[in-house]
Each structure stands twice: as C-alpha cells, then as structure tokens.
Design a protein that fits this description.
The protein is mostly helical. The protein has a single domain, classed as MetI-like (MetI-like fold), CATH 1.10.3720. The protein is 75% helix and 0% strand.
C-alpha cells in the first residue's frame, strides 16, 4: 500500500503540470485584461503600457507561464491584482476554513442520511417507502441549488425571520466567548448547509439504492441467507460493504466538485468561502488568484481519487494494491 500511494503521488507531478499549463493558456486567451478593472478609463496609453510592463503582461505567454511555474514550485502561487498584490496562498488560506466547514459538514450529514435510507429503500423495493424515497431523491437532484437557496432565504429569513440570510457571523456583534461565536456561526450555517446537503443526499441515496439492489441479488447473499443468518447480518455485514464501493467512488470524486460546486450556494448566502473568492477572481480577471484556485482544485481531484482507492481496501479486504 505504501508503494502504491508513493507511485500515485509521483503521478501527480505530470498531471499537475499538464493541468496548470492548460488552465494558464485558457485563462490568458480569454478576452480582457486584469488592467481593465484596475485603471481609470481616461488614463493614457503610455501609462497602461507601463503598468503592463510592471505586471509582466507584455512578455510572451510561455515566458509568463514559465515564470509562474518557477514561483509555484517554490510554494508561491502568485499575487492577486484585485487585492493589491496580496499572496494568492494567503487569500486561499483565509477563505478555506469557511468552505471546509460548509463542505465537510454537508458530506458528513449526506453520507449519514443517504446510506441507511438507500439500504432501507433497496431492501423494500416497490413498497410505498421505496417509491417515496425515489421521488424525493429525483426531486432533490432536479431542483436547482440556487432556487432552493432562494426559497429557504425567503421563507426562513424574510417570512419567519428565524435565521440570518447571509454572511458567516452577525455584523457589528461582539462575541465575548468562543461559545457565542460558535452559536452565531452555526445559525448562519444552517441555511447554506441545508441547501448543499439536499442535493448531495439525493445523489448519494440514488447510488446507494442502485448499488444495493445489484448486490442483494448476488449468489453469496443468497448463500448467507441459506446458512440461517439474520437479515440484518446479511444486509449490513455482507451486502453493504460491497454496495458501498460505487458510493465511495462518487464520494471521492465529489470532494473537489463540492468545493467548486459550493460556488452557487456561497453566492446565494454570501458565505465567505472559496466559491465567492472564485467568482471574484473571474469577474475581476485576477489571473494569479484564478490560477491558484484552479491548482488547489486540481490537487483535490487527484487526492479525491487516491482517497477513494484507499477506502476501497478498507471497505473490501479482498482489494489489495501491489
């Protein structure tokens, strides 16, 4: 296993190089320039050219990529033009905590709910409960995240006034203790968490149910029943482990997409995370910040695949990596 993990980590190097090169080319081929949001429209052409020279925008594209890659290898992902030259890594670090809190809370709750519901639905196929679960799962996947978020804001925020409609903490309120701060963050977290968890739970339920239906028809499950084992032992000890393999695949692949997919949720609720930072970098043509976020997401994709492979061997002891 250690050698397998080491090989996979070494494979990250060419993958990341290829990803950064493609992303850098695409970003710089887009129309516009970072200067379009930084300077006065009435400024002279000579001043614009001087600023382009200061930022290195007058150099050839491959030369700029080489300079960025040299800095990135040393741990410097570049500087943000929108935030007046602040380090990209510092900006990502400041926003990462909020996204991690939202994303991992959503993953944990979705998995805890989806697996039992999917198993119960599969073991009671064609029952009223099964039809209800299928309908709710399809509805959860079909309803756009932004629409659900707006409905929750309108109902719980404006109509009932129970929950805050945006931000991570209440503005202008001091938190004398950590507990009061945590409670304030928790109240702001409820609506975006429900919005993001609804779609994730629906997707995990569908995969768990489909995988479980396939597994419980296998010969070894019938053999376990014939041996006189109880239905709970057959389902949860023998069948569930194999049924979780496709779910783990989806879970591993969902990790990076949850970070990027939280963009809509964070935008609706003005949650100060990676999603809103990505929107800002795109709208302001902040090439350095946009490259840093894409590198971060590329690492998440690779690590998500690696974690899924590792969890395979944990769930199914028959799987071994040489």
């Amino acid at each position: 296993m250690k050698q397998y993990i080491l090989r996979r980590l070494l494979q990250m190097i060419p993958t990341l190089l290829g990803t950064t090169f493609i992303v850098y080319i695409i970003i710089n081929m887009a129309p516009g320039s970072p200067l379009s949001h930084m300077i006065d429209p009435t400024i002279s052409q000579e001043a614009i050219e001087r600023r382009e020279e200061q930022l290195g925008l007058d150099r050839p594209l491959l030369h700029r990529y080489g300079a960025w890659l040299t800095e990135a290898v040393q741990g410097n992902l570049g500087y943000s033009t929108r935030y007046r030259g602040r380090l990209v890594s510092e900006l990502i670090q400041n926003r990462l905590g909020a996204t991690v809190l939202l994303t991992f809370s959503s993953i944990f709750i979705s998995f805890i709910i989806a697996v039992p519901v999917g198993v119960i639905s599969a073991t009671r196929q064609y029952s009223t409960l099964d039809y209800s679960v299928v309908v709710m799962a399809i509805a959860g996947v079909s309803v756009p995240v932004f629409f659900l978020g707006i409905v929750l804001v309108w109902f719980f925020g404006f109509q009932l006034g129970w929950l805050p409609i945006g931000g991570m903490v209440s503005a202008g309120i001091r938190h004398p203790t950590f507990m009061t701060y945590a409670l304030d963050v928790g109240r702001h977290l409820i609506l975006p968490l429900v919005t993001l968890t609804a779609a994730n739970t629906a997707r995990f339920v569908r995969f768990t149910r489909s995988s479980m239906l396939e597994v419980i028809r296998q010969d070894y499950v019938r053999t376990a029943r014939a041996k006189g084992l109880s239905e709970q032992v057959v389902i949860y000890r023998h069948a569930l482990r194999n049924a979780l393999l496709p779910v783990i695949t989806i879970l591993g692949l969902s990790l990076p997409f949850l970070f990027s997919g939280a963009i809509i949720t964070e935008s609706v609720f003005t949650w100060p995370g990676m999603g809103t930072l990505l929107i800002e970098s795109i709208s302001q043509r902040d090439y350095g910040l946009l490259m840093g976020i894409n590198v971060f997401l590329a690492v998440l994709v690779i690590m998500g695949n690696l974690l899924a492979d590792i969890f395979y061997s944990v769930v199914d002891p028959r799987i071994r990596y040489d």
